[in-house]
Amino acid sequence: MIHVKFDPQGGDISIEILYFGNLTASYVYTLWEKNSNSKKDEQTGNNQNSDDDKYDLPSPVSENEGRIVEVFSTLNNPSGGSIEKEIVAIRLWQGRRILLSEENPDGFKVGGKTFTLTEQKIIDAGKTELSDPFIKLIV
Q: What are phi and psi of 11, to 5 degrees?
């Protein structure tokens, strides 16, 4: 789990989920309540359409302290014979600023852009892999 600081008095927080590669991907984004098994928000999506994969976290912003962001992705390589690379890329925004983790304050770079977190998977032909990063929101 990585830790991402935000300003409890700052602007709204949003999450953006992107995929880099040629694979089929779907996800479940969950915002977990602080110190609880309860879900504050849950959204689903995939990389097979042009819909935005961006969601606003609830307001007031300060109530997101201690909550956990989880993005559970299923990545499938339907190709007949090649091994493929897929990158799950997550950005947390506060206003127009990308929030970066304490563990990597320079962010993760993909395609010349900066992300809060990325995870790379190598997937054999005809196989499915999972990605399940967690981000804890702190002040």
A: -70, 180
Q: How far apart are CA 8 and CA 71, in angstroms?
A: 22
Instruction: Judge whether residue 9 has pLDDT over 90.
Output: yes
Peptide bond before 60: cis, by omega within 30 degrees of 0? yes
Residues 6+ positions from 56 with CB-CB distance below 8 Å: 12, 13, 14
Which of the four pLDDT bands, split at 50, 70 and 90, describes residue 40? very high
Name the 3-class secondary structure at 53.
coil
Measured distance CA(61)–CA(46) in Å, rounded: 27
Closest C-alpha to 61, from 105, 107, 14: 14
Across the range 74-101, mean pLDDT stands at: 94
Q: Any idea what the Cα angle at residue 111 is, between residues 108 and 116, rounded to 5°?
A: 25
Residue 81, pLDDT score:
78
**DSSP per-residue letters across 84-109:** EEEEEEEEEEETTEEE-BSS-TT-EE
